[in-house]
Design goal:
It contains ten helices and three strands. The protein has about 190 residues and is mainly alpha-helical. The chain folds into two domains: about 130 residues, Arc Repressor Mutant, subunit A (Orthogonal Bundle), CATH 1.10.10; about 45 residues. Helix 5 crosses helix 6. The longest helix has 17 residues. The termini are far apart.
Length: about 190
């Protein structure tokens, strides 16, 4: 559960961040470019000196997606580069949302808990802002009204089909398109 008015705030914030990078509402947001512009290093999980046995035993390849980690004087992103690119883009954008929202850091990363000990509200806020950064509501409305499938949206924005389906539904774009279609058929 997020604070009342957060979705509108996230939408405005996403427009602001996207405009910093010269992106129009239907342009693709690149979380790697975002972190590069802010001087935040990204460390790929495969580059860590962890044995294959430890990786297999802990299920890191499957269960762990990414994290924004404090380095004392700054932050860095840990990116699971064993995951497909579209999943990595949504995970890394989620971590960018934590960075943008200046969320507090967890004290430990747990593969089992998957959410690194952050407050549920902070995770929900990061999900909402990441959705707005990757597929803005205005873009989702345009695509839904034009009859685009979730597959088409996923392909355009370089996200998973699950992410596109969630975003097109949770944003209200599909409901908006249905009401426009109903109104036009009168």
């Amino acid at each position: 559960m997020v604070e009342r008015g957060f979705k509108a705030r996230a939408s405005r914030l996403a427009v602001e961040i996207r405009s910093e990078f010269g992106l129009k509402v239907t342009d693709v947001f690149d979380p790697y470019e975002y972190f590069s512009a802010y001087g935040v290093p990204i460390l790929e999980l495969s580059s860590l000196e962890v044995s294959d046995m430890q990786i297999a035993h802990q299920g890191i390849r499957d269960k762990f997606s990414g994290a924004l980690i404090s380095t004392g004087s700054g932050v860095m992103v840990l990116d699971n580069d064993w995951h497909p690119r579209n999943r990595r883009r949504s995970t890394t954008t989620h971590e960018a949302a934590h960075h943008i929202l200046e969320h507090a850091f967890a004290t430990a990363i747990s593969v089992e808990e998957r959410k690194c000990g952050l407050a549920r509200e902070q995770e929900d806020e990061a999900d909402i802002l990441a959705g707005e950064l990757l597929i803005p509501f205005e873009a989702a409305k345009r695509h839904a009204t034009a009859g685009w499938s979730d597959w088409q949206v996923a392909d355009l924005y370089e996200v998973s089909i699950e992410f596109a389906r969630w975003r097109m539904g949770a944003s209200g774009a599909r409901k908006y398109a249905a009401s426009v279609k109903k109104y036009r058929s009168r």
